[in-house]
Amino acid sequence: MQKPTESELTILHLLWKMGPSTVREINDVLNEADRAQRVTEVGYTTTLKLMQIMFEKGLVDREEDGRTHRYRALAGEQDTKKLLLQNFVESAFKGSAMELVLQALGNHKASEDELEQIKALIASIEEEQSKK
Length: 132
Description:
This protein has 132 residues and is mainly α. The protein has helices at 6-18, 23-36, 44-57, 77-93, 97-107, 112-131; strands at residues 21-22, 60-65, 68-73. The chain has six helices and three strands, in the order H-E-H-H-E-E-H-H-H.
């Protein structure tokens, strides 16, 4: 799977949330979000071109629905997040997950609930590794 650009990732998030959608439907939601943030609207042809590129890259599939195309995400949400995180850890932290976690915890005051979830995750990983 190819790494999606930031704009492509935005569209993928919408397809994961909304399911198969037309370019018009995606463009309308993009512009609703832009209006709420007072950002310049995204043109229909820009969204169309992005989705055509995404089709060529294998990130989405499309089927004809009358005169329009209905697009659906081929890239799974978890697989995409995993790929992006792996690329980020490699490029920003030279492959060190520990440095990423330390940086994240150092820049963010974790709540008690978050700390408990982190402890539970560590315990789960340790248990899984002890079985190997």
